[in-house]
Structures are given as structure tokens and as C-alpha cells.
Amino acid sequence: MSSITLLSRHRGTSHSGKENEPFLSVIVPMFNEEAVIEACHQRLCLALDRLNRMCELIYVDDGSTDPCCDLANQFTSSIHQVRTIRLSRNFGKEAAMTAGLQAASGQAVILIDADLQDPPELIPAMVEQWQNGFDVVDMKRNQRHGEGWFKRSTAALFYKLMNRLCEIPIPENVGDFRLIDRRVVNEINRLPERTRFMKGLFAWPGFRRTTLMFDRDPRLSGQTKWNYSQLMHLALEGITSFSTRPLRIATGAGLLTSVAALAMAVVVFAKTLIWGEPVAGYPSTIMVVLLLGGVQLLSIGLMGEYVGRLFIEAKQRPLFVVMDEQFQDIEGMSEEAKA
Ligand code: UDP
Ligand code: MG
Q1: Up-side HSE of residue 1: CA atoms within 13 Å toward CB?
Q2: DSSP secondary structure of 26-43
Q3: Atom 9 (ligand 1): residue with closest C-alpha?
Q4: Whole-angstrom Cα distance, residue 317 to residue 101?
Q5: Rounded Cα distance, 10 and 131, in Å
């Protein structure tokens, strides 16, 4: 208890000696968010102003085809630093968040969606938990407004499966909206994998964690960028990046079918040799062939998923490419750096 109190007193004070180091970095990945990005910036600034500390806002444009990055380049603040990082194409939200995490210099980082589904007004409460000594503040959704029962139940099934298969617990209904202390950010930045299942990567380092409940709002405008096949891909990515248990299940299924086939062979032999019964062949043969074929194909496909990921990891390509970056310091002076 006393050590936590001691730590909390140091949280957010510039003990590193860097006076212009931001207190907090807020990372906003955005992809075609023209309709919402201005409202997002306004609400973020209002929430950050309540902290009375200099913060850093990092907008990562994930290859948008609309002018949302140009809008973000115009954003200013008299208290906070504003940065925009434009990626050279759409690399996916995971890569955009990774770019933001690598660029952030705050003593803690908050990841938040641009569409205002994660209310910026909750930031002071998250910071309070951090100052109480927690290293990660996970934001758990109370209700999933604007999402049908199908999405809700498939999401619940995914978390159940994930937690059954993986060694590290992945908190249920916690998205990417969270606060992460600098020490944990440094650990996440050290993880080299190319297939980045962020929910797993955020959970992997451990540290002291707490969870705050919140009501997730519907999207302010526009449409979700995820369709069901992408969500399916994400689920498969999550499972194959954090567990090899499916491979063991495939081995188990192979063993089970072999034992069952052997038992069946004994029964068929006994029936024919002892009671002289004719073998009713066709339906049972087809059933066994189909069953075995299914199990074999499934196992090969599963192995393929892992081999495919090995192939991607082996190439060691960078996760994203930065096209240009703009840094708006507090006085509103802008600096542009082209990569
Ligand atoms: N996003 C991104 N790259 C993508 C897809 C989405 O940076 O390829 C951003 C998007 O602009 C938003 C956040 O990720 O800020 C969440 O996306 P979305 O609202 O589509 O997902 P959902 O809330 O439906 O899970
Ligand atoms: Mg959204």
C-alpha cells in the first residue's frame, strides 16, 4: 500500500528531468474520418484542458482517401502539442496504433478512436487511476450501443475461445481504448512481431492493471471500417498469434479418429467372423471417408495458418511507412518533416 502511495506521488511529475516532456500522449488512429475529426479534436482538447498539464495529441492518418489528415494538420492548441503522422497507405488500425506508440513521448499514453465511440470526457478518470499507481487502465464496455445481437454474441464467443486457448488472459469487452504507463509502452514497443494482435500485445507485459466500466457511444458519423470477414480474420489472427493450442487440438482429433477407427474395425471383424453378418458397406464407408477427409483438411489448413504467419514474420518487413509528419508546437508554429 505504502509503495503504491509513494509511486503515485511521482506519477506525472517530471522526475526524468525533461521539463518539456508531455504529461500524456493521446493517440488517435484515423482512416477516412473527415466527418468527425474536428469534433473529436474539440472534445479531446476540452478533456485534456481539465488536467492542467501539457499533453501531446498524435493523429495517425492510416492512408485516408478523404482530407481528414489535412484537417488535422490545421489543428492548434494553446496548451498542448499537436502532431500528425501520415502513413503512406492504409496499413490497418494495428499498424497506425503502433506508429503512434513509437512516436509518443508522454509519461503515459491513451489510445482512442477518432469516431468518438470512446468518450474523451473519461480521460481525467483514467489519469486518476494511473496516478493511484496503476500502470494500465483498461476501459471495459458496459453496453455495445448500435451493435446488433449477432455482433455482440460473436464477440462474446471470441473472448471465451480466446481465453480458453491463450495462456495470458485477454480482458473481455475491452477494446483499444486504454491508458498505458510509459514503462509498459516501452515493453510493447520492444515486441517485434509483424502480426500485431493489439488486444494480446497490450495484455502481454502484465504490470498493475485496473478496469473502468463505460458506455460505448454509437459512431458520431460514418460507418465502421470492419466487415465480418475482417473480424473473422482478426479473430484468427488473435488465436494463432497467442496460442499453439489449436495445433494440439488437431493432434488430439487425429488421435481420437484413429482410436475410433480401430474400435470400429474390431467390431466389424467380430461381427463378420463370429456371427457371419454381411458388412453393410456403402453408407458407413462414405461417412468415415468424409469425416477423416474433413479432419485432415482442417488440420492442414490450421497448420497453413501458422506457416503463413511464420512466412510473414520471417520477411521482417516494416510495419508501416511514414509519408510525412507535422509537429505543431504550443505557440502554433508548425514544422514539417518529410520522410
Ligand atoms: N481505423 C484505422 N485504420 C483502419 C480502420 C480503422 O486507423 O484501417 C481507425 C478508425 O478511423 C477509427 C478506429 O480505427 O478511429 C476504429 O475504427 P472503426 O470505428 O471503424 O471500428 P469499430 O469502432 O467499429 O470497431
Ligand atoms: Mg468505431
Answers
A1: 0
A2: EEEEESS-TTTHHHHHHH
A3: 30
A4: 18
A5: 8
Q: Nine-digit cell at 212? A: 473502468
Q: What is the pLDDT of residues 95-114, one digit of tens each?
A: 999 999 999 999 999 999 99
Separation of CA 115 and ligand 1 centre (Å):
8
Grid cell 518539456 is found at: 20
Q: Among 69, 110, 112, 113, say which to mutate for ligand 1: greatest number of ligand atoms within 8 Å of CB.
A: 113
* Cα distance between residue 30 and residue 202, in whole Å: 20
DSSP 221-281: SS--S--HHHHHHHHHHHHHHH--HHHHHHHHHHHHHHHHHHHHHHHHHHHHHHS-PPP--
Atom of ligand 1 nearest to the CA of 114: 15
Q: Cell numbers 518529410 label which residue?
A: 338
Statement: the pTM of the whole predicted model exceeds 0.85 = no
> Ligand 1: does its nearest atom lie under 6 Å from the Cβ of 100?
no
Contact (CB, 8 A) for 41 and 125:
no
pLDDT tens digit sequence for 327-336: 876 655 555 5
Q: Coil, helix or strand for 58?
A: strand
- CA 195 vs. chain centroid, Å, equals 11
Dihedral pair phi/psi, residue 143, rounded to 5° = -130, 150
